């Protein structure tokens, strides 16, 4: 069964983390409005899962880069605001 045009467009990954977060926030707002049909809600949910996974992956990659860039290569927590 061929995929719908909207499914193919939804599979496109945003250019960066910020764009993905903005799209995810817009999806949440649309879903919370209660104006979507069941099918539209399911498609929005599926897209939200894709975006969430992409954002988690980007955050994990950023965390790994920070770990590599520390002076001794040891992973540590960032200090809380005001503790620096």
Topology (SSEs and partners):
Layout: H1 5-10, H2 17-33, H3 38-69
Helix pairs in contact: 2-3
Describe the structure.
With 84 residues, the protein is mostly helical. The protein has a domain of 58 residues: Exonuclease VII, small subunit (Helix Hairpins, Orthogonal Bundle). It contains three helices and no strands. Its EC number is 3.1.11.6. It catalyses: Exonucleolytic cleavage in either 5'- to 3'- or 3'- to 5'-direction to yield nucleoside 5'-phosphates. It is found in: Cytoplasm.
CATH superfamily of the domain at 12-69: Exonuclease VII, small subunit
CATH topology of the domain at 12-69: Helix Hairpins
Distance between the termini: 57 Å
Q: What is the CATH C level class of the domain at 12-69, in words?
A: Mainly Alpha
**Classification by helices and strands:** mainly alpha
What is the N-to-C order of secondary-structure elements (H for helix, E for strand)?
Answer: HHH
Task: Quickly give the CATH architecture of the domain at 12-69.
Answer: Orthogonal Bundle
Got a strand count? 0
Uncertain stretches: 1-5
Helical percent range? Answer: 55-70%
Shape: elongated
Largest sheet: none
**Rg to the nearest angstrom?**
18 Å
Mean pLDDT: 82
Output the number of helix runs. Answer: 3
Strand content: under 5%
GO cellular component, one term: exodeoxyribonuclease VII complex
Keywords: Cytoplasm, Exonuclease, Hydrolase, Nuclease
Family: Belongs to the XseB family.
Subunit structure: Heterooligomer composed of large and small subunits.
């Amino acid at each position: 069964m061929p995929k719908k045009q909207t499914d193919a467009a939804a599979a496109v990954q945003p250019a960066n983390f910020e764009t993905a977060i903005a799209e995810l926030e817009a999806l949440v707002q649309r879903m919370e409005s209660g104006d979507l049909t069941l099918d539209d809600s399911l498609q929005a949910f599926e897209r939200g899962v894709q975006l969430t996974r992409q954002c988690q992956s980007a955050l994990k990659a950023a965390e790994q880069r920070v770990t590599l860039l520390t002076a001794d290569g040891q992973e540590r927590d960032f200090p809380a605001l005001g503790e620096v």
